[in-house]
C-alpha cells in the first residue's frame, strides 16, 4: 500500500473504500458462491493413501471414499433444522442483525434506499441487486437488502438462492453410491472362480533400475516456459552440440585442431 501511495495517492484513497477481501470482486459481474473451485491439490490430499497404488486399486479407493462421504453428509444434514445450510444461515443471521440499525426509504414497490452511518445503498428486490453488490456476488441478501425486504413484510429466505437451502444440500447427496460386488478385475471374467492369482496384482517382469524412481509431474510453468534451443559452436547450426556435430570437417576445423596441438 505504501508503494501504491507513492505512485498514485488517488489510487491509494480509492482502494481504502473497500476491504482487502473484496478487492478481487469489485468489478466481478458473476455470482460467487464461495465453495466452487477446481483445485487438484485438494483432490490429491483426499486420496493421499491411494495415489501410489495401481489404477484399479485407486478406483476402488475413490469409490469407497465417495460412499463414506455421501453417507456422512446425509447424516450430517439430517440434523439441520434451519432453512439454509449452516454457513449460509450464519451469514443470513449476521445480515439480519446489522439490518436492524438501518433506516429504509421506499421509492416504489421494488426499489428502496437504505441509510446507514457510513453511506446509503440502493436496493432493488425485483432484480435482487444492491449497490454494495454483495447480494449479486454471494446470492444471499446483504444487510441492506434484508432491511428493505423486512420493511415491506416479506420473507428474506425467499430471496436467497436455492442452492444454499438445507433441502438442496440433502437433495445433492440423496442418491446412494452402491457397493460393487467383488473386486474390479481388468480383462478377467467375474463369473469364473476367484482365487489369489486373480485378486493379487503382480509386479511387471521387467527389471527396474536401482534407486528411487523420479516422479514426473506436469507443471503449469513448464507448459508456458520457452524451450531452450541448443547451438553448435562448430557448424553454427541449432539442434545439437559440438560434441555430437556430424558436419564434414572443413579447413577451419583442421587449422583450429593444429593450433591446439
From TrEMBL:
Residues covered by region (Disordered): 182-215
InterPro entries: Znf_PMZ (IPR006564), Znf_SWIM (IPR007527)
MF GO annotations: zinc ion binding
Domain SWIM-type: 121-153
Keyword Cell membrane assigned: no
Swiss-Prot/TrEMBL keywords: Metal-binding, Zinc, Zinc-finger
Protein name according to UniProt: Uncharacterized protein LOC116196530 isoform X1
UniProt organism field: Punica granatum
Lineage of producing organism: Eukaryota, Viridiplantae, Streptophyta, Embryophyta, Tracheophyta
Gene name for this UniProt entry: LOC116196530
Amino acid at each position: 500500500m505504501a508503494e501504491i501511495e507513492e505512485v498514485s495517492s488517488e489510487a491509494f484513497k480509492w482502494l481504502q473504500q473497500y476491504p482487502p477481501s473484496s478487492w478481487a470482486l469489485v468489478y466481478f459481474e458473476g455470482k460467487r458462491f464461495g465453495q466452487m473451485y477446481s483445485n487438484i491439490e485438494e483432490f490429491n490430499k483426499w486420496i493421499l493413501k491411494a495415489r501410489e497404488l495401481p489404477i484399479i486399486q485407486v478406483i476402488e479407493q475413490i469409490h469407497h471414499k465417495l460412499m463414506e462421504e455421501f453417507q456422512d453428509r446425509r447424516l450430517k444434514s439430517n440434523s439441520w433444522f434451519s432453512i439454509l445450510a449452516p454457513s449460509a444461515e450464519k451469514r443470513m443471521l449476521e445480515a439480519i442483525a446489522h439490518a436492524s440499525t438501518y433506516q429504509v426509504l421506499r421509492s416504489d414497490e421494488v426499489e428502496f434506499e437504505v441509510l446507514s452511518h457510513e453511506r446509503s445503498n440502493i436496493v432493488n428486490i425485483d432484480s435482487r441487486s444492491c449497490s454494495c453488490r454483495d447480494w449479486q456476488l454471494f446470492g444471499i441478501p446483504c444487510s441492506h437488502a434484508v432491511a428493505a425486504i423486512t420493511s415491506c413484510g416479506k420473507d428474506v429466505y425467499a430471496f436467497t438462492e436455492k442452492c444454499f437451502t438445507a433441502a438442496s444440500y440433502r437433495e445433492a447427496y440423496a442418491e446412494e453410491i452402491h457397493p460393487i460386488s467383488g473386486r474390479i478385475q481388468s480383462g478377467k471374467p467375474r463369473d469364473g472362480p476367484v482365487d489369489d492369482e486373480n485378486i493379487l496384482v503382480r509386479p511387471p517382469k521387467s527389471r527396474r533400475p536401482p534407486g528411487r524412481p523420479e516422479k514426473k509431474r506436469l507443471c503449469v510453468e513448464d507448459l508456458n516456459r520457452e524451450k531452450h534451443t541448443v547451438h553448435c559452436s562448430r557448424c553454427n547450426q541449432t539442434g545439437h552440440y559440438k560434441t555430437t556435430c556430424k558436419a564434414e570437417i572443413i579447413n577451419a576445423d583442421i587449422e583450429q585442431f593444429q593450433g591446439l596441438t
